[in-house]
Amino acid sequence: MNIIIRNNAAEGSLWAAHYIAEKINAKAKVSDKPFVLGLCTGSTPIQTYAELIRMVKDGEVSFKNVISFNMDEYVGLPESHPESYHSFMHRYLFDHIDEPAQNIHILNGNAADPVAECQAYEDAIVAAGGFDLFLGGVGEDGHIAFNEPFSSLASRTRVVTLTQDTREVNARFFDGDFNKVPRQALTVGVATVLSSKEVVILAFGSKKARALKDAIEGPMSHYCTLSGLQGHPAGTIVCDENSVGELKVNSYRYFKAVEAAEKQ
Ligand code: GLP
Description:
By secondary structure, the protein is an alpha/beta fold. The protein is built from eight helices and ten strands. A seven-stranded parallel β-sheet has the order 1-10-9-6-2-3-5, with helices on both faces. The longest helix is centred in the N-terminal third of the chain and has 22 residues, at 9-30. The structure holds 2-amino-2-deoxy-6-O-phosphono-alpha-D-glucopyranose. Residues 40-44, 71-72, 137-139, 145-146, 166 line the site of 2-amino-2-deoxy-6-O-phosphono-alpha-D-glucopyranose (GLP).
C-alpha cells in the first residue's frame, strides 16, 4: 500500500487530480480504449474535482474517452434532490467537464428492481473493460463506498442498510436531521472496488484518523472495509497530516522515507 502524506487537504487533492489526469493521458497515448474510472462523493473529493475541472478547461486532460461509474447512491431519494449523489456529481464534476453523458454511470436508487439494477451495474463495468482506476473516500468508521463495518470483503454491488453512525455523520447534508437521511443505499462492493487495476483513496482531517489507523496498521478485516486495500497490488491512500495523526510514529516515518527515497 502506498501512503502519500501531504501537508493539508488542498495539497493532497492537487496530488490526486494530477495523478488521475496523468493516468488518463498515459492510456490515451497508447490505446483507443476508454479509461474506466470509479468515482466517489462526499466532501473529500470536491477539491480534487475542482482541479480536474481546471485541467479540462486548460486543455491538460480530457474526459471524452473516459467512462465513469460512481460507487453508490441513496435508495428512495429523487435524483433531483440536491443531496442525491446524482445531483452531487453533476454539481461538482460532470456539468463542468467534457465527459459524454452516455459514459456517466450512477446507480439508480429508485430502480423498481434494485437487485437487478445492481447486477446490471456489475455487468456494465465488465462490458466497459473493468476499472483502470477507482477513486474513493472513506467514512469515519473506515467504510469504503457504503460498505459499512462487517460488510464482506468479497462483496459486490448490492442494496445495503446504513448504520446509525453513518446516518448521523451524513445528517449534516440533510439540514442536520438524522431522520431525513435515507436508511438504505445501493453500493458497489469492496470486491468491486478492489477489482480495479488501481485504487486511490482520499482521507483528510482528524476525523479520518481512526479509520486510517485501522486500515493501515490493523489486520485486513471486515471491521474496517478500507483495510481490504491491503490485499490489493496497487492501492494508494492520499492523506494529510491530520488524518495520519493516529499512526505509529514509526509507520509515519516509514511512509515519509519511502516517498523521499522515490523522489531521489
Ligand atoms: C459517504 C460515502 C462515501 C464517502 C464517505 C465520506 O458515506 N458513501 O463514499 O467516502 O461518505 O464522506 P466525506 O468525504 O464527506 O467525509
